[in-house]
Write a structure and sequence with these properties.
The protein is α+β, with helices and mostly antiparallel strands. The protein contains 4 helices and 5 strands.
């Protein structure tokens, strides 16, 4: 084994701590023997208890190589503060929505289903020469085939 390979294997086998998130997870970076950068995370929770929310989105971007540099503590604190403000606004909006019932829900429906598709004349065979429409209902006119006589 050449000294270059030995040096590369020593360097690549060690992982470097890049940072940690506000949940206590630690993020590492290491260089493989092929020269590629591999990023990993050591979870504070037991791996069996892992949930999607355990890795913040800013660190997820870094792990996947979307962002080149890891998020700073200041960035993480700002993002957490914005997330808390947004969740508070959502709660207030839901509470306001529940307290004020929309006008369209207060109106009672007056249509009564008496037959297929609420047709008013399901069994009656009333036909008109011309189609009749009163806005809410439509009654088709009668159709008569052309007589050659």
């Amino acid at each position: 084994m050449s000294w270059k390979r030995l040096l590369l294997s020593v360097i690549s086998s060690s992982k470097k701590l890049v940072g940690s998130d506000l949940l206590g997870n630690q993020y590492y970076e290491r260089i493989t023997s092929g020269g590629r950068i591999r990023r990993s995370v050591e979870m504070k929770r037991i791996p069996d208890e892992y949930q999607m929310k355990d890795i913040p989105p800013e660190w997820e971007r870094w792990l996947r190589g979307i962002s080149k540099s890891p998020p700073t503590n200041e960035e993480q604190e700002v993002l957490l503060r914005n997330k808390l403000i947004m969740s508070q606004k959502i709660k207030e909006l839901k509470k306001k929505e529940e307290s004020t019932e929309p006008e369209h829900q207060k109106v009672t429906m007056t249509t009564k289903a008496t037959s297929h598709a609420s047709s008013q004349s399901y069994n009656e065979h009333e036909t008109a020469e011309d189609p009749v429409s009163t806005g809410n209902t439509f009654q088709p006119g009668s159709w008569k085939p052309y007589n050659k006589q």
